[in-house]
Each structure stands twice: as C-alpha cells, then as structure tokens.
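Notes from hallway chat w/ T.B., transcribed later so I don't forget. T.B. wanted the structure written out for a chain they're using in a teaching module, and asked if we could keep both sequence and structure tokens in one place. Agreed to drop them here.
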Amino acid sequence: MIVELEVLGYAAGGNCVARHEGKVIFIRGVIPGETVKVKLNDDEKSKRFTTATLVEVISPATKRVTPPCQHFGECGGCDWQHISIDEQMNMHHNVISDQLKRIGKFDNLTVLPTLSAKGETGLGYRNKMRFATTDAGNFAMRKNKSHNLVEIDSCLIADAQIDAVTKSNWPPAAEVTVVKGSDEVLVLANREIVPEITYRNDFGSWQVPAGDFWQVHQQAPAMLIKRVLHQLEISQGDRVADLYSGVGLFAQPIAKIVGASGAVFAVENDLRAHGCALVNLHSFDWAEVIQSDVAKYLRKATGFNKAIVDPPRSGLNQSVINSLNQIKGLTKICYVSCDAGTLARDLRSFADAGWQIGEIQPLLLFPMTAHIETIVSVTKLS
C-alpha cells in the first residue's frame, strides 16, 4: 500500500517515524517535517508498528541535501547522506535526550550540543573499511539489514588511501578489510592473520591489532582522550582504573599525567588487545595491565579513586555497577558509550545508587550514520 505521511521525528537506529492508522511507521531516508509518499511493508504482523520504503519526497525539509554518493539508498553503509552535518548533530542530540527520558526516566538532565571534528564534512574520515566481494571478485557493500551485495567503485566516507585500493580481482565471496594507520595501509584478506598497525596523535602512540580496537574516525582518538581527561579532571597522583581498556587508548595519556606517585589499572579481557596494551604501557612502571573480565576483576578491586568505563554496545551489567558503587574512595567515573539506550539504562542505575549525572557530551564520530559516541561524567554524592 502506498500512502502519504508527515514525518514526525527521529528514532534510534537511523530511521524516522510517522503514524498511519494507529501504527508507528519507521522510514529510512527522510527528515522530520517532510511530507513523503511511502510504500508500507505489508509483511510485518505487528499491530503497533511497521516499516515503509520511501517512494517520493513531496515536501522536502530545509536540511535535506543531495547525497554525494551515487550508491546512497542502495548501499547500507550510510544512513544520512541526505541530511546536512549540522542536522545530523542535532539528530544525535535529540536521540540521546529522548533515550534518557524514555529509558532512563530522567526529566532534568542537560545534554550538551554535539561536538564534531574541526571542518567535518562526513567524507574521507574512515581509517578502516570492511568490504564484501562478489562472485566475480569485485568489492561490494551490503544493503541495509541484508546479506545482498551492492557492487561499488568508490566509497566516499573512506580515507582516500583506502579508497585507492583496487576494487577488483579479489577472492570471490569473501571479505576484505582495509586499514590505514599513521604510517601504512594494510589489506587483510585473511582474518586469521592479524598484524599490528601503529596510530599516533598529540597524546601518544599505540600499537593496535589491525582492524580491531580502534576508532574508525581518524580524529576520534584525540577527541575522546581530550574529553575524558576534561571530565575526569586527572591530576598527578590520581589512581585510575581504565575498564574495558582495549589497547590502552586512555590509559597511556592518563599514565603520563598521574606520574609515578599515581597508578593506572588497564583492564581488558581480549587477549590481542591486552597484548598490545602491554606494549603501549611498558614504559610506565605505575601502570598495571590486567587481562580479565571486568566484572570478575571488580569483585576484588581496590585502590583507585577515578575510573573510565568504555563497555561494548550492550553496556554495563548490574554487577559491574554494584561493584563500582562499593569501591571505597571511588568518587568519579567517566562513562564512554556507543549506545544511547544502554547508556540511559545504566545511568538510571547509577542515579538510583546515589551518583550524580554530570556533563553529557555527544560526539559525531560516525558521520553519515546513526552511530553516536557519548561521554558522561558520574560523580559519587557524599
């Protein structure tokens, strides 16, 4: 069925929402305020919601722009090439605010304006791309929420050196990951072999398993470090736990600041990331690099007054929050989140346990997509 609808607002995951005959309609490729013609998905059986495919924009929003990529709409790699960067930043702000209200049940928190990299265009920013290959051995991307392939000749959000890699004559029906470090570009056609690659910025230098455990936006690591240091107010002599530490992105610059009178505890369960963290922190005798599940480590952990938590998309489990709440002397936590929903849930648990939610800072580190990074300060109330 084809119907005409008014787009009402943003939703998490890259969609926008409209309503039709009592149902919530999720639509990709549109902007709130637009009047659009869509084809409803008749296969979905829910009485409360369904999806729809955009057919025509009848009344476009002022923030609508012409997508720069010829593959946009068919390729599933980007959600918002039709939206200006300024509006993408507003969208992330609105989504986080909505999740804090609906999931976290907060009605008095202030979300700061979204930060972006200087001069952000949304193009050429990615230092890692994972391509599928067609049966003919040509590079392709997958359609949105599909295994079907879209053959591409160029990807505009990839770094120019990555995009320059030949797109043909690869093993058919495979995956190829292309990674750009500070000194080289690596092409990984065999995921069983994971070489290391080096990244550098003004805060330090890190060895990283190529294709793993590193931000894909080339300016993201420095932006994140700067914000974490600001929110935690790191000083000489602090004792800091970096939980879900990866290769030590935060632990290394923090170790430089706290000095020998302080301590850093970098806790990571993944063996490859842990191995690189040992290298990245080897020159700091006051940095302890621990290979452990975070929940298990916290059952017996003591001796730190500040902490960073940078969990996977699933967020923190309740046992981690309970353990952090019980650590004597812990007064400040910096929560680095890649999922607004689980962040809102976890912040509610902290608030209920007597912690004050401070600065909430969204960062546009995945332009053209619905992914958002958020950094929040959480302080123990005395």
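Follow-up for T.B.: The CA atoms of residues 168 and 375 lie 40 Å apart. Might be a good example for the class.
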